[in-house]
Design brief:
Distance between the termini: 44 Å
Helix content: 25-40%
Number of domains: 4
Structural class: alpha+beta
CATH architecture of the largest domain: 3-Layer(aba) Sandwich
CATH superfamily of the largest domain: Gcn5-related N-acetyltransferase (GNAT)
Length: 599
Protein backbone atom coordinates (compact mmCIF):
# COMPACT_ATOMS: atom_id res chain seq x y z
CA UNK A 1 0.00 0.00 0.00
CA UNK A 2 1.41 3.35 -1.02
CA UNK A 3 -1.12 6.08 -1.66
CA UNK A 4 0.11 9.65 -2.00
CA UNK A 5 -2.06 12.76 -1.95
CA UNK A 6 -1.12 16.42 -1.99
CA UNK A 7 -0.32 16.37 1.74
CA UNK A 8 -0.40 12.74 2.88
CA UNK A 9 1.08 9.29 2.44
CA UNK A 10 -0.88 6.13 3.28
CA UNK A 11 1.44 3.18 3.68
CA UNK A 12 1.90 -0.02 5.77
CA UNK A 13 2.72 -0.24 9.46
CA UNK A 14 6.28 -1.04 10.55
CA UNK A 15 7.65 -1.55 14.03
CA UNK A 16 9.42 1.81 13.73
CA UNK A 17 5.96 3.40 14.11
CA UNK A 18 5.21 1.72 17.45
CA UNK A 19 5.86 4.80 19.59
CA UNK A 20 3.77 7.17 17.44
CA UNK A 21 1.03 4.48 17.19
CA UNK A 22 0.98 4.33 21.00
CA UNK A 23 0.89 8.13 21.41
CA UNK A 24 -1.78 8.69 18.77
CA UNK A 25 -4.04 6.10 20.38
CA UNK A 26 -4.14 7.95 23.72
CA UNK A 27 -6.35 10.77 22.44
CA UNK A 28 -9.44 11.51 24.51
CA UNK A 29 -11.78 10.87 21.57
CA UNK A 30 -10.18 7.47 20.99
CA UNK A 31 -10.75 6.52 24.63
CA UNK A 32 -14.35 7.70 24.38
CA UNK A 33 -15.36 6.21 21.04
CA UNK A 34 -12.91 3.31 20.45
CA UNK A 35 -11.43 2.16 23.78
CA UNK A 36 -10.28 -1.16 22.26
CA UNK A 37 -7.94 0.81 19.99
CA UNK A 38 -6.07 2.47 22.89
CA UNK A 39 -2.54 1.09 23.48
CA UNK A 40 -1.27 2.08 26.90
CA UNK A 41 2.37 1.23 26.16
CA UNK A 42 4.78 1.10 23.26
CA UNK A 43 4.99 -2.66 23.72
CA UNK A 44 1.24 -3.10 23.33
CA UNK A 45 1.41 -0.93 20.19
CA UNK A 46 4.20 -3.20 18.87
CA UNK A 47 2.00 -6.22 19.40
CA UNK A 48 -0.89 -4.57 17.58
CA UNK A 49 1.34 -3.63 14.63
CA UNK A 50 2.60 -7.21 14.34
CA UNK A 51 -0.98 -8.46 14.35
CA UNK A 52 -2.12 -5.91 11.74
CA UNK A 53 0.84 -6.61 9.46
CA UNK A 54 -0.20 -10.24 9.30
CA UNK A 55 -3.30 -9.25 7.33
CA UNK A 56 -1.52 -7.25 4.61
CA UNK A 57 -1.01 -10.34 2.47
CA UNK A 58 -4.66 -11.41 2.42
CA UNK A 59 -8.08 -9.81 2.23
CA UNK A 60 -9.58 -11.20 5.42
CA UNK A 61 -9.11 -7.97 7.35
CA UNK A 62 -8.89 -5.83 9.26
CA UNK A 63 -6.82 -3.78 6.81
CA UNK A 64 -5.31 -0.90 8.81
CA UNK A 65 -2.80 1.55 7.34
CA UNK A 66 -0.92 4.48 8.93
CA UNK A 67 -1.42 7.98 7.59
CA UNK A 68 1.73 10.11 7.39
CA UNK A 69 2.37 13.72 6.51
CA UNK A 70 4.72 14.26 3.59
CA UNK A 71 7.56 14.86 6.06
CA UNK A 72 7.01 11.39 7.57
CA UNK A 73 5.08 12.46 10.68
CA UNK A 74 2.66 9.69 11.69
CA UNK A 75 -0.71 11.39 12.35
CA UNK A 76 -3.26 8.56 12.38
CA UNK A 77 -4.67 5.71 10.34
CA UNK A 78 -7.41 4.57 7.97
CA UNK A 79 -8.89 1.10 7.91
CA UNK A 80 -11.39 -1.29 6.38
CA UNK A 81 -12.76 -3.95 8.70
CA UNK A 82 -15.05 -6.90 7.97
CA UNK A 83 -18.47 -6.77 9.60
CA UNK A 84 -21.58 -8.92 9.30
CA UNK A 85 -23.05 -6.73 6.52
CA UNK A 86 -19.80 -6.50 4.52
CA UNK A 87 -17.02 -3.99 5.22
CA UNK A 88 -16.75 -0.90 7.39
CA UNK A 89 -14.52 2.16 6.96
CA UNK A 90 -12.64 3.55 9.95
CA UNK A 91 -10.23 6.41 10.56
CA UNK A 92 -8.46 8.32 13.31
CA UNK A 93 -6.42 11.52 13.26
CA UNK A 94 -4.33 12.47 16.30
CA UNK A 95 -5.69 15.44 18.23
CA UNK A 96 -2.71 17.65 17.36
CA UNK A 97 -3.58 17.35 13.67
CA UNK A 98 -7.38 17.57 13.64
CA UNK A 99 -9.31 20.42 12.02
CA UNK A 100 -7.06 20.52 8.96
CA UNK A 101 -8.98 18.22 6.63
CA UNK A 102 -6.49 15.35 6.89
CA UNK A 103 -9.12 12.72 7.75
CA UNK A 104 -11.26 13.67 4.75
CA UNK A 105 -8.23 13.69 2.46
CA UNK A 106 -7.10 10.27 3.70
CA UNK A 107 -10.50 8.58 3.53
CA UNK A 108 -11.20 10.02 0.09
CA UNK A 109 -7.90 8.65 -1.26
CA UNK A 110 -8.18 5.31 0.55
CA UNK A 111 -11.72 4.41 -0.54
CA UNK A 112 -11.21 3.60 -4.24
CA UNK A 113 -7.99 1.69 -3.58
CA UNK A 114 -9.26 -0.53 -0.79
CA UNK A 115 -12.61 -1.14 -2.51
CA UNK A 116 -10.82 -2.29 -5.64
CA UNK A 117 -8.56 -4.59 -3.62
CA UNK A 118 -11.54 -6.11 -1.81
CA UNK A 119 -13.63 -6.23 -5.03
CA UNK A 120 -16.55 -4.52 -3.28
CA UNK A 121 -18.94 -1.89 -4.60
CA UNK A 122 -20.10 -0.46 -1.25
CA UNK A 123 -18.79 0.07 2.25
CA UNK A 124 -20.40 1.11 5.55
CA UNK A 125 -19.42 3.84 7.99
CA UNK A 126 -20.74 3.66 11.56
CA UNK A 127 -20.44 6.84 13.63
CA UNK A 128 -21.68 7.94 17.03
CA UNK A 129 -24.48 10.48 16.73
CA UNK A 130 -22.60 12.78 19.13
CA UNK A 131 -19.46 12.74 16.95
CA UNK A 132 -20.27 15.43 14.37
CA UNK A 133 -16.68 15.73 13.13
CA UNK A 134 -16.56 12.11 11.96
CA UNK A 135 -20.03 12.38 10.47
CA UNK A 136 -18.87 15.37 8.43
CA UNK A 137 -15.85 13.44 7.16
CA UNK A 138 -18.08 10.66 5.86
CA UNK A 139 -20.54 13.11 4.28
CA UNK A 140 -17.75 15.02 2.55
CA UNK A 141 -16.42 11.74 1.15
CA UNK A 142 -19.77 10.85 -0.40
CA UNK A 143 -21.27 8.60 2.28
CA UNK A 144 -25.05 8.76 2.55
CA UNK A 145 -26.92 8.44 5.84
CA UNK A 146 -28.75 5.11 5.73
CA UNK A 147 -30.02 4.62 9.27
CA UNK A 148 -30.16 7.06 12.19
CA UNK A 149 -30.53 4.12 14.57
CA UNK A 150 -31.80 4.09 18.13
CA UNK A 151 -28.62 3.18 20.04
CA UNK A 152 -26.71 6.42 19.53
CA UNK A 153 -24.97 5.27 16.34
CA UNK A 154 -25.63 6.36 12.77
CA UNK A 155 -24.96 4.12 9.79
CA UNK A 156 -23.69 5.61 6.54
CA UNK A 157 -23.08 3.86 3.25
CA UNK A 158 -20.77 4.63 0.35
CA UNK A 159 -21.49 3.10 -3.06
CA UNK A 160 -18.66 2.99 -5.58
CA UNK A 161 -19.27 5.60 -8.22
CA UNK A 162 -18.80 4.60 -11.80
CA UNK A 163 -20.61 7.16 -13.97
CA UNK A 164 -21.81 10.68 -13.21
CA UNK A 165 -24.45 12.28 -15.44
CA UNK A 166 -24.25 16.08 -15.42
CA UNK A 167 -26.67 18.33 -17.27
CA UNK A 168 -27.13 21.99 -18.04
CA UNK A 169 -30.46 23.41 -16.86
CA UNK A 170 -31.91 26.11 -19.12
CA UNK A 171 -32.52 24.82 -22.62
CA UNK A 172 -31.44 21.31 -21.68
CA UNK A 173 -33.10 19.75 -18.62
CA UNK A 174 -35.72 22.45 -18.11
CA UNK A 175 -38.66 22.84 -20.49
CA UNK A 176 -39.05 25.92 -22.71
CA UNK A 177 -41.14 27.33 -19.83
CA UNK A 178 -38.05 27.17 -17.54
CA UNK A 179 -39.36 24.44 -15.27
CA UNK A 180 -39.06 20.71 -14.71
CA UNK A 181 -41.75 18.70 -16.46
CA UNK A 182 -44.05 16.50 -14.41
CA UNK A 183 -42.34 13.52 -16.06
CA UNK A 184 -38.92 14.71 -14.87
CA UNK A 185 -40.24 15.33 -11.34
CA UNK A 186 -41.63 11.80 -11.19
CA UNK A 187 -38.64 10.10 -12.80
CA UNK A 188 -35.44 11.74 -11.57
CA UNK A 189 -35.88 11.08 -7.80
CA UNK A 190 -36.61 7.42 -8.55
CA UNK A 191 -33.53 7.10 -10.74
CA UNK A 192 -31.36 8.69 -8.03
CA UNK A 193 -32.84 6.40 -5.36
CA UNK A 194 -31.95 3.49 -7.61
CA UNK A 195 -28.32 4.60 -7.70
CA UNK A 196 -28.04 7.10 -10.57
CA UNK A 197 -25.33 9.71 -9.91
CA UNK A 198 -26.85 12.90 -11.25
CA UNK A 199 -26.22 16.62 -10.97
CA UNK A 200 -26.36 19.92 -12.84
CA UNK A 201 -23.91 22.39 -14.40
CA UNK A 202 -25.60 25.73 -14.87
CA UNK A 203 -25.04 29.47 -15.16
CA UNK A 204 -27.60 29.89 -12.38
CA UNK A 205 -26.78 30.42 -8.69
CA UNK A 206 -27.97 28.06 -5.96
CA UNK A 207 -30.69 30.49 -4.92
CA UNK A 208 -32.11 30.33 -8.43
CA UNK A 209 -31.45 26.64 -9.06
CA UNK A 210 -33.06 25.36 -5.90
CA UNK A 211 -36.38 26.96 -6.86
CA UNK A 212 -36.67 25.07 -10.16
CA UNK A 213 -35.18 21.87 -8.67
CA UNK A 214 -37.11 21.82 -5.39
CA UNK A 215 -39.11 18.72 -6.33
CA UNK A 216 -36.06 16.53 -7.01
CA UNK A 217 -33.62 17.63 -4.26
CA UNK A 218 -31.18 16.63 -2.96
CA UNK A 219 -29.08 15.76 -5.99
CA UNK A 220 -26.82 12.75 -5.73
CA UNK A 221 -23.68 14.77 -6.53
CA UNK A 222 -22.62 18.38 -5.94
CA UNK A 223 -24.07 21.01 -8.28
CA UNK A 224 -21.90 23.14 -10.58
CA UNK A 225 -23.12 26.76 -10.45
CA UNK A 226 -22.31 30.02 -12.23
CA UNK A 227 -20.68 28.08 -15.09
CA UNK A 228 -18.18 26.53 -12.65
CA UNK A 229 -17.43 29.43 -10.31
CA UNK A 230 -19.17 27.59 -7.47
CA UNK A 231 -19.76 23.95 -6.58
CA UNK A 232 -22.48 23.29 -4.02
CA UNK A 233 -23.26 20.08 -2.13
CA UNK A 234 -27.05 19.88 -1.95
CA UNK A 235 -26.90 17.11 0.66
CA UNK A 236 -24.76 18.97 3.20
CA UNK A 237 -25.87 22.47 2.13
CA UNK A 238 -22.40 23.91 1.72
CA UNK A 239 -20.09 25.19 -0.98
CA UNK A 240 -17.30 22.69 -1.57
CA UNK A 241 -15.47 24.88 -4.10
CA UNK A 242 -15.40 28.65 -4.70
CA UNK A 243 -13.36 30.35 -7.43
CA UNK A 244 -12.85 33.84 -6.01
CA UNK A 245 -11.67 36.66 -8.30
CA UNK A 246 -8.81 38.61 -6.66
CA UNK A 247 -9.53 42.29 -5.94
CA UNK A 248 -7.09 43.66 -8.51
CA UNK A 249 -8.63 41.45 -11.23
CA UNK A 250 -12.13 42.61 -10.29
CA UNK A 251 -11.07 46.24 -10.64
CA UNK A 252 -9.44 45.59 -14.03
CA UNK A 253 -12.60 43.82 -15.19
CA UNK A 254 -14.78 46.73 -14.10
CA UNK A 255 -12.48 49.17 -15.92
CA UNK A 256 -12.87 47.18 -19.16
CA UNK A 257 -16.64 47.04 -18.68
CA UNK A 258 -16.94 50.82 -18.28
CA UNK A 259 -14.58 51.51 -21.17
CA UNK A 260 -17.08 49.74 -23.43
CA UNK A 261 -20.11 51.57 -22.05
CA UNK A 262 -21.46 48.57 -20.17
CA UNK A 263 -22.55 47.77 -16.65
CA UNK A 264 -23.92 44.64 -15.03
CA UNK A 265 -24.32 42.66 -11.83
CA UNK A 266 -21.36 41.80 -9.60
CA UNK A 267 -21.90 38.64 -7.53
CA UNK A 268 -20.41 38.33 -4.06
CA UNK A 269 -20.80 35.48 -1.57
CA UNK A 270 -21.74 36.66 1.90
CA UNK A 271 -22.88 34.32 4.68
CA UNK A 272 -23.37 31.54 2.15
CA UNK A 273 -25.64 33.56 -0.15
CA UNK A 274 -25.11 35.34 -3.45
CA UNK A 275 -25.34 39.11 -3.04
CA UNK A 276 -25.63 40.92 -6.40
CA UNK A 277 -24.46 44.55 -6.63
CA UNK A 278 -25.33 46.92 -9.45
CA UNK A 279 -24.82 50.51 -10.45
CA UNK A 280 -27.45 52.69 -12.15
CA UNK A 281 -29.35 50.56 -14.68
CA UNK A 282 -31.96 53.13 -15.72
CA UNK A 283 -32.25 53.17 -19.48
CA UNK A 284 -31.00 49.59 -19.68
CA UNK A 285 -34.11 47.45 -20.23
CA UNK A 286 -32.27 44.12 -20.51
CA UNK A 287 -30.67 44.61 -17.09
CA UNK A 288 -33.94 45.81 -15.60
CA UNK A 289 -35.73 42.71 -16.89
CA UNK A 290 -32.95 40.50 -15.54
CA UNK A 291 -33.23 42.01 -12.06
CA UNK A 292 -37.03 41.99 -12.01
CA UNK A 293 -37.09 38.27 -12.80
CA UNK A 294 -34.74 37.53 -9.87
CA UNK A 295 -35.84 39.91 -7.14
CA UNK A 296 -37.72 37.09 -5.43
CA UNK A 297 -34.54 35.24 -4.46
CA UNK A 298 -31.76 37.85 -4.48
CA UNK A 299 -31.24 40.93 -2.34
CA UNK A 300 -29.97 43.33 -5.00
CA UNK A 301 -27.87 46.21 -3.69
CA UNK A 302 -27.53 49.45 -5.64
CA UNK A 303 -24.20 51.26 -5.40
CA UNK A 304 -22.60 54.21 -7.15
CA UNK A 305 -19.43 52.19 -7.69
CA UNK A 306 -19.13 48.41 -7.99
CA UNK A 307 -15.44 48.73 -7.16
CA UNK A 308 -16.37 49.47 -3.53
CA UNK A 309 -17.10 45.75 -3.11
CA UNK A 310 -14.08 44.37 -4.96
CA UNK A 311 -12.47 43.11 -1.75
CA UNK A 312 -15.41 40.80 -0.96
CA UNK A 313 -15.59 37.19 -2.20
CA UNK A 314 -16.44 38.12 -5.79
CA UNK A 315 -17.20 35.16 -8.05
CA UNK A 316 -19.02 36.56 -11.09
CA UNK A 317 -19.85 39.54 -13.26
CA UNK A 318 -22.78 39.19 -15.66
CA UNK A 319 -23.95 41.63 -18.36
CA UNK A 320 -26.83 41.48 -20.83
CA UNK A 321 -27.13 43.27 -24.17
CA UNK A 322 -27.19 42.74 -27.93
CA UNK A 323 -24.42 40.64 -29.46
CA UNK A 324 -22.90 43.56 -31.31
CA UNK A 325 -22.65 45.53 -28.07
CA UNK A 326 -21.00 42.77 -26.04
CA UNK A 327 -18.71 41.16 -28.61
CA UNK A 328 -16.01 43.91 -28.47
CA UNK A 329 -16.03 43.79 -24.67
CA UNK A 330 -15.54 40.04 -24.77
CA UNK A 331 -12.33 40.53 -26.75
CA UNK A 332 -11.12 43.04 -24.17
CA UNK A 333 -11.93 40.72 -21.29
CA UNK A 334 -10.15 37.81 -22.97
CA UNK A 335 -6.96 39.89 -22.85
CA UNK A 336 -7.18 40.31 -19.07
CA UNK A 337 -5.01 37.95 -16.97
CA UNK A 338 -6.70 35.32 -14.80
CA UNK A 339 -10.19 36.15 -16.11
CA UNK A 340 -12.40 33.83 -18.18
CA UNK A 341 -15.57 34.82 -19.99
CA UNK A 342 -18.31 33.25 -22.05
CA UNK A 343 -20.68 34.97 -24.49
CA UNK A 344 -23.92 33.18 -25.34
CA UNK A 345 -27.51 33.84 -26.37
CA UNK A 346 -30.35 33.66 -23.87
CA UNK A 347 -32.14 30.29 -24.00
CA UNK A 348 -35.59 31.91 -23.78
CA UNK A 349 -35.31 35.29 -25.53
CA UNK A 350 -33.54 35.29 -28.91
CA UNK A 351 -31.49 38.40 -29.49
CA UNK A 352 -30.47 38.92 -25.86
CA UNK A 353 -26.91 37.84 -25.12
CA UNK A 354 -25.05 37.24 -21.86
CA UNK A 355 -21.41 38.06 -21.23
CA UNK A 356 -20.40 36.32 -18.02
CA UNK A 357 -16.99 36.74 -16.42
CA UNK A 358 -15.30 34.80 -13.65
CA UNK A 359 -11.94 33.49 -12.46
CA UNK A 360 -9.96 31.66 -15.16
CA UNK A 361 -10.18 28.58 -12.92
CA UNK A 362 -14.00 28.73 -12.97
CA UNK A 363 -15.27 26.78 -15.95
CA UNK A 364 -17.70 23.92 -16.27
CA UNK A 365 -14.75 21.90 -17.53
CA UNK A 366 -12.65 22.53 -14.42
CA UNK A 367 -15.67 21.74 -12.29
CA UNK A 368 -16.04 18.37 -14.02
CA UNK A 369 -12.38 17.62 -13.34
CA UNK A 370 -12.86 18.60 -9.69
CA UNK A 371 -15.84 16.26 -9.30
CA UNK A 372 -13.96 13.42 -10.99
CA UNK A 373 -10.92 13.76 -8.73
CA UNK A 374 -12.65 14.46 -5.44
CA UNK A 375 -15.51 11.97 -5.72
CA UNK A 376 -13.85 9.21 -7.73
CA UNK A 377 -16.03 9.03 -10.83
CA UNK A 378 -14.65 6.75 -13.52
CA UNK A 379 -16.76 8.27 -16.28
CA UNK A 380 -18.70 11.52 -16.68
CA UNK A 381 -21.45 12.06 -19.25
CA UNK A 382 -22.54 15.62 -20.02
CA UNK A 383 -25.67 17.17 -21.56
CA UNK A 384 -26.05 20.69 -22.92
CA UNK A 385 -27.55 23.07 -25.45
CA UNK A 386 -25.58 26.30 -25.57
CA UNK A 387 -22.10 27.72 -26.16
CA UNK A 388 -21.33 27.96 -22.43
CA UNK A 389 -21.53 24.15 -22.38
CA UNK A 390 -18.49 23.75 -24.64
CA UNK A 391 -16.03 23.55 -21.68
CA UNK A 392 -18.31 20.96 -20.08
CA UNK A 393 -18.30 18.86 -23.24
CA UNK A 394 -14.53 19.06 -23.58
CA UNK A 395 -14.04 17.65 -20.07
CA UNK A 396 -16.60 14.81 -20.24
CA UNK A 397 -16.07 11.24 -21.46
CA UNK A 398 -19.34 11.26 -23.40
CA UNK A 399 -21.54 14.18 -24.43
CA UNK A 400 -25.08 14.57 -25.73
CA UNK A 401 -26.60 17.71 -27.18
CA UNK A 402 -30.37 18.11 -27.01
CA UNK A 403 -32.10 18.47 -30.38
CA UNK A 404 -32.66 22.21 -29.78
CA UNK A 405 -28.95 22.82 -29.11
CA UNK A 406 -26.68 25.19 -31.01
CA UNK A 407 -25.20 23.58 -34.10
CA UNK A 408 -21.66 24.16 -32.79
CA UNK A 409 -22.45 22.01 -29.75
CA UNK A 410 -24.13 19.28 -31.80
CA UNK A 411 -21.04 19.08 -33.98
CA UNK A 412 -18.79 18.19 -31.04
CA UNK A 413 -21.26 15.91 -29.20
CA UNK A 414 -21.09 12.14 -28.98
CA UNK A 415 -24.71 12.15 -30.04
CA UNK A 416 -27.88 14.20 -30.26
CA UNK A 417 -30.85 13.31 -28.06
CA UNK A 418 -34.43 14.52 -27.79
CA UNK A 419 -35.13 18.19 -27.23
CA UNK A 420 -35.75 19.80 -23.85
CA UNK A 421 -39.44 19.97 -24.77
CA UNK A 422 -39.36 16.16 -25.25
CA UNK A 423 -37.53 15.52 -21.93
CA UNK A 424 -34.58 14.25 -23.95
CA UNK A 425 -32.19 14.14 -20.99
CA UNK A 426 -34.54 12.31 -18.64
CA UNK A 427 -35.54 9.78 -21.29
CA UNK A 428 -31.87 9.15 -22.01
CA UNK A 429 -31.21 8.62 -18.29
CA UNK A 430 -34.02 6.10 -18.03
CA UNK A 431 -31.86 3.55 -19.87
CA UNK A 432 -28.31 4.19 -18.57
CA UNK A 433 -27.73 0.48 -18.03
CA UNK A 434 -28.68 -0.65 -21.49
CA UNK A 435 -26.00 -2.80 -23.12
CA UNK A 436 -25.27 -3.04 -26.83
CA UNK A 437 -23.55 -6.20 -28.07
CA UNK A 438 -22.88 -7.97 -31.37
CA UNK A 439 -25.86 -10.02 -32.53
CA UNK A 440 -25.66 -13.82 -32.80
CA UNK A 441 -27.81 -16.26 -34.73
CA UNK A 442 -29.66 -16.91 -31.46
CA UNK A 443 -31.02 -13.36 -31.75
CA UNK A 444 -32.73 -14.07 -35.10
CA UNK A 445 -36.25 -14.64 -33.65
CA UNK A 446 -36.10 -11.45 -31.59
CA UNK A 447 -34.75 -9.40 -34.51
CA UNK A 448 -37.45 -10.76 -36.83
CA UNK A 449 -40.16 -9.84 -34.33
CA UNK A 450 -38.73 -6.33 -33.86
CA UNK A 451 -38.44 -5.90 -37.64
CA UNK A 452 -42.12 -6.84 -38.08
CA UNK A 453 -43.38 -4.63 -35.26
CA UNK A 454 -41.16 -1.78 -36.48
CA UNK A 455 -42.62 -1.85 -39.98
CA UNK A 456 -46.15 -1.94 -38.63
CA UNK A 457 -45.53 1.01 -36.29
CA UNK A 458 -43.45 3.19 -38.63
CA UNK A 459 -44.77 2.52 -42.15
CA UNK A 460 -48.51 1.86 -41.82
CA UNK A 461 -49.33 5.47 -42.76
CA UNK A 462 -47.78 5.22 -46.23
CA UNK A 463 -47.29 1.52 -47.11
CA UNK A 464 -50.43 -0.61 -47.74
CA UNK A 465 -51.17 -3.10 -44.99
CA UNK A 466 -51.06 -6.00 -47.49
CA UNK A 467 -47.50 -5.10 -48.52
CA UNK A 468 -46.36 -4.87 -44.89
CA UNK A 469 -47.95 -8.23 -44.07
CA UNK A 470 -46.27 -9.84 -47.09
CA UNK A 471 -42.82 -8.55 -46.10
CA UNK A 472 -43.30 -9.49 -42.45
CA UNK A 473 -44.37 -13.05 -43.27
CA UNK A 474 -40.93 -13.73 -44.74
CA UNK A 475 -38.85 -12.26 -41.93
CA UNK A 476 -38.64 -15.20 -39.44
CA UNK A 477 -37.10 -17.42 -42.13
CA UNK A 478 -34.87 -14.67 -43.50
CA UNK A 479 -33.20 -13.40 -40.33
CA UNK A 480 -30.80 -16.32 -39.66
CA UNK A 481 -29.44 -15.71 -43.15
CA UNK A 482 -29.09 -11.98 -42.55
CA UNK A 483 -27.02 -12.59 -39.43
CA UNK A 484 -24.81 -15.18 -41.12
CA UNK A 485 -24.29 -13.35 -44.44
CA UNK A 486 -21.48 -11.04 -43.35
CA UNK A 487 -22.84 -8.19 -45.49
CA UNK A 488 -23.56 -6.13 -42.40
CA UNK A 489 -22.34 -6.17 -38.82
CA UNK A 490 -25.40 -6.49 -36.58
CA UNK A 491 -25.72 -5.22 -33.00
CA UNK A 492 -28.57 -5.49 -30.52
CA UNK A 493 -29.47 -3.30 -27.50
CA UNK A 494 -30.36 -5.38 -24.44
CA UNK A 495 -32.57 -3.94 -21.72
CA UNK A 496 -33.21 -5.99 -18.56
CA UNK A 497 -32.02 -9.11 -20.35
CA UNK A 498 -34.27 -8.64 -23.37
CA UNK A 499 -33.26 -7.71 -26.94
CA UNK A 500 -35.28 -4.58 -27.78
CA UNK A 501 -33.87 -3.54 -31.16
CA UNK A 502 -31.15 -4.02 -33.76
CA UNK A 503 -28.63 -2.03 -35.72
CA UNK A 504 -26.75 -2.91 -38.90
CA UNK A 505 -23.51 -1.34 -40.17
CA UNK A 506 -21.55 -2.00 -43.34
CA UNK A 507 -19.63 -0.65 -46.29
CA UNK A 508 -21.76 1.24 -48.86
CA UNK A 509 -22.25 -0.75 -52.07
CA UNK A 510 -20.39 0.25 -55.21
CA UNK A 511 -23.39 1.89 -56.88
CA UNK A 512 -23.49 4.47 -54.09
CA UNK A 513 -20.44 6.19 -55.66
CA UNK A 514 -19.22 7.31 -52.24
CA UNK A 515 -15.61 7.46 -50.98
CA UNK A 516 -14.27 4.65 -48.78
CA UNK A 517 -14.47 6.94 -45.75
CA UNK A 518 -18.24 6.32 -45.50
CA UNK A 519 -19.94 3.77 -43.25
CA UNK A 520 -23.51 2.74 -44.08
CA UNK A 521 -26.17 2.55 -41.41
CA UNK A 522 -28.17 -0.24 -43.00
CA UNK A 523 -31.01 -0.19 -40.50
CA UNK A 524 -31.93 0.85 -36.98
CA UNK A 525 -35.12 -0.56 -35.43
CA UNK A 526 -36.62 -0.67 -31.94
CA UNK A 527 -39.55 -2.56 -30.55
CA UNK A 528 -42.42 -0.02 -30.26
CA UNK A 529 -42.69 -0.76 -26.52
CA UNK A 530 -39.40 1.09 -25.92
CA UNK A 531 -39.95 4.08 -28.19
CA UNK A 532 -39.06 7.54 -26.82
CA UNK A 533 -36.79 6.25 -24.06
CA UNK A 534 -33.52 7.49 -25.55
CA UNK A 535 -32.47 4.07 -26.82
CA UNK A 536 -32.49 5.14 -30.47
CA UNK A 537 -30.13 8.00 -29.68
CA UNK A 538 -27.79 5.62 -27.87
CA UNK A 539 -27.84 3.21 -30.80
CA UNK A 540 -27.00 6.06 -33.16
CA UNK A 541 -24.11 7.21 -30.96
CA UNK A 542 -22.88 3.61 -30.75
CA UNK A 543 -23.02 3.26 -34.54
CA UNK A 544 -20.97 6.41 -35.04
CA UNK A 545 -18.41 5.30 -32.44
CA UNK A 546 -18.00 1.95 -34.24
CA UNK A 547 -17.52 3.79 -37.53
CA UNK A 548 -14.82 6.01 -36.06
CA UNK A 549 -13.04 3.00 -34.60
CA UNK A 550 -12.74 1.52 -38.09
CA UNK A 551 -11.31 4.74 -39.50
CA UNK A 552 -14.49 6.05 -41.13
CA UNK A 553 -15.13 9.77 -41.17
CA UNK A 554 -18.68 9.92 -42.51
CA UNK A 555 -22.01 8.07 -42.29
CA UNK A 556 -24.79 7.44 -44.81
CA UNK A 557 -28.25 5.91 -44.65
CA UNK A 558 -31.49 5.66 -46.65
CA UNK A 559 -34.91 6.71 -45.36
CA UNK A 560 -38.34 6.78 -46.98
CA UNK A 561 -39.30 10.30 -48.03
CA UNK A 562 -42.76 9.80 -46.50
CA UNK A 563 -41.30 8.69 -43.15
CA UNK A 564 -41.40 12.10 -41.46
CA UNK A 565 -40.71 10.90 -37.87
CA UNK A 566 -37.55 9.03 -38.89
CA UNK A 567 -36.34 11.92 -41.01
CA UNK A 568 -36.78 14.27 -38.02
CA UNK A 569 -34.84 11.81 -35.86
CA UNK A 570 -31.93 11.60 -38.32
CA UNK A 571 -31.89 15.35 -38.83
CA UNK A 572 -31.83 15.89 -35.05
CA UNK A 573 -28.78 13.60 -35.00
CA UNK A 574 -27.02 15.78 -37.54
CA UNK A 575 -27.83 13.96 -40.81
CA UNK A 576 -28.84 15.83 -43.96
CA UNK A 577 -30.07 14.70 -47.42
CA UNK A 578 -27.32 14.90 -50.03
CA UNK A 579 -29.62 14.91 -53.09
CA UNK A 580 -29.41 11.19 -53.94
CA UNK A 581 -32.75 9.35 -54.22
CA UNK A 582 -34.15 5.94 -55.18
CA UNK A 583 -37.56 4.35 -55.73
CA UNK A 584 -39.14 1.13 -54.41
CA UNK A 585 -42.36 -0.80 -54.97
CA UNK A 586 -44.24 -1.80 -51.83
CA UNK A 587 -47.85 -1.87 -53.04
CA UNK A 588 -47.17 1.64 -54.35
CA UNK A 589 -44.12 3.51 -55.60
CA UNK A 590 -42.10 4.97 -52.76
CA UNK A 591 -39.18 7.35 -52.88
CA UNK A 592 -36.23 7.07 -50.50
CA UNK A 593 -33.63 9.74 -49.77
CA UNK A 594 -29.97 9.34 -48.91
CA UNK A 595 -28.83 11.14 -45.75
CA UNK A 596 -25.18 11.73 -44.83
CA UNK A 597 -23.20 13.08 -41.90
CA UNK A 598 -19.54 13.90 -41.37
CA UNK A 599 -18.15 12.47 -38.13
Amino acid sequence: MNIQTERLIITEFTQAMARSHHINSLDVDNREYLPDEVFESVESARGNIAWLAGYYENADGPLVYPVLLRDGTHIGHVQACPIKEGWEIGFHTAAAHTGKGYATEAVRAFLPVVMERLAITQITGNVRADNPASRRVLEKCGFVLEDEGTSGWRRYRFAKKSTLYITDLDGTLLTPQARLSDFAIQTLPRLMRDGLHFTIATARTWQSSRIVLKDILPLSAPAVLLNGALIYDTQTDEYVQKAIIPKERVLALLDAMRAHGQTGFLYSIREGFIRPYHEDISGRPFLQTFMAARTGYYNFTSTPDLGLYADEEIVYLTMQDRLEALAPLREAVKALPEIACVLYEDSYTPGIWYLECCSHTATKGNAVRFLRERYGYDRIIGFGDNLNDIPLFKACDGTYAVANAKEELKAMATGVIGSNEEDGVVRFLMTPNITIRPATTDDAPACAEIHCRGWEAAYSDFIPAEAIAQKNAARPAAWPGYLASGKYDYYVPVLEGKVVGFLSLGQPSGHESLPDCYCELGGIYLHPSVYRQGIGRKLMAFAEDRARETGKTAMMLWVFEDNAPSRRFYEACGYRPDGAADTHEYGRTLRSLRYVKEL
